Amino acid sequence: MAALTGEVSWFCCGSAWGPCGTAGGGACGTCSSGNYQHAWPNTSDACLAITRPHACGITGMSRRGCGFRHYTTNLCNGARVGTVIADCGPQTDLFCGERTCCGSACGSNRIIDLTPAAYSAIASLTTGLRPCSVNSV
Prior knowledge:
It contains 2 helices and 8 strands.
């Protein structure tokens, strides 16, 4: 998979952790806000039908299943975190054209959701969104 550039956001799942109350275990049944995990828009046909990244013009988003490891780099500060797929998401098509920048580094369209533990490894949770690149190496 070639690196994708877009936006990273965060979401809650599993047991209560940090700012999150208890939530479901995600599409894979293993999601936990305190673990380094993420949601990916193309985990299955059913997931892709909900998230619809192609509606925002995103191509080249590989099909990856539960447990696959991606690396997300915050384009604002260069911080990088490795996480595994534990859920389906984000619902990219709801945010087509959304753009987040810090200085000259920008990303458009939400392409990955990290758990709060993973997001806080690369950015403050208060930022909510950051431009990012995502790859599998």
